[in-house]
Amino acid sequence: MSLFVIVSCGGFFRKKILNSPLNDPRKMLLVRIDPGYLGEFKEKTEGKYAISYQEADSYYSVMSKEDVEKFGFPSPGITVVKQYFPFKYYSGNYQDLIKERFTDLEDLKKGYKDNILNIHYLLGVASRYPKRARVEVIGKTARGREIPALLLTNTNLSDEEKISVLFNCAHHANEVISIEHCYDIIYSVLSKPKRYEEILNKMKIWVVPIVNPDGARHFWHVSNLMGRKNGHPGIGPVNEKLNPGVDINRNYPFFWGKTGGGYSSSNPSNYFYRGPSAGSEPETKAMMDLADRERFAASISYHAYANCLLIPYSIDSLNNPEPDMAGELGRKIAASVASLNPEKEFEAKKIFILSMGWIRIIYTSLMGHSRIFWKPRI
């Protein structure tokens, strides 16, 4: 239990990465600049906005909607993009990061990560810290991409009798900030070797930064409307190019399809489509296989949008065990976390009822009532 008291949840990233709704068209807009008008753009905006993405015949910058109107855009050579472009256009420094070699842990702070950057950093960390980290592939996606994980432990000691815990992120790959929380764990553990030496001697800390690599590929390189679901080919109407696949956090078998509410659906077109059958998706199976093998003592699954910390159970017919370690520890963590969003600081018993999420399958089916689990939705 001491692991979770020590680990910083959302520490340095809040300071390093701008807290702005990058791809929310209600507040921020993507502006396209013709090369011949770049000087005019910089002069009008007084250098306030950097170039977020560059093509051979265009520059792009993410601006607040208020400033777009203030500076009189659109104007000749400077247009407002109406389509939902891939997230790489919005992230700010993707093209720079993709060219850089991994040098040290400080690189983990530089920006948001797609699949390419994720495996780049995981391999870099494992190469730099071979006595405390190694990369393992826990499975493959519906489209054949590998799902990489980083195992933090003393690799010179036998894994037998070590206690396993798990941090996972990006079940929904459009919740891009969740990935940074996984990297916060990696940074925190490896940057403080003395503090974590005894823990790494006795524990295996598994980190899966992107559970949904296919969704990440769609979100970063096709359209920022995509990414929540896994993009499984053949699932969903053919004409719905921007919403294919399964919500893998609704696909876990525990109480699959047995609860009501608007956050789970049997309709393939739905944002919360739970899949054709329980546990049908390869990403779901990969996580279940890992849990079955490791028998995790505790797990945190990071998500976004709600500023909530969810603990099992949210189903009326199920009672929490006594002693309720997940509930007790979850409340302690919630009490110690401050919200920087004045619109999202609240407490409620039932945010929504989910029947098939990772939170239930790991807590009940694989771990039993003696284990700890919760899921922050930052």
UniProtKB/TrEMBL annotation:
Cited SMART domains: Zn_pept
Keywords: Carboxypeptidase, Hydrolase, Metalloprotease, Protease, Zinc
GO terms for biological process, alphabetical: proteolysis
Needed co-factor(s): Zn(2+)
Gene Ontology MF annotations: metallocarboxypeptidase activity; zinc ion binding
Superkingdom to which the source organism belongs: Bacteria
Positions of the Peptidase M14 domain: 110-378
GO cellular component: extracellular space
Similarity remark: Belongs to the peptidase M14 family.
Protein name listed in UniProt: Zinc carboxypeptidase
Organism in which the protein naturally occurs: Leptospira weilii str. 2006001855
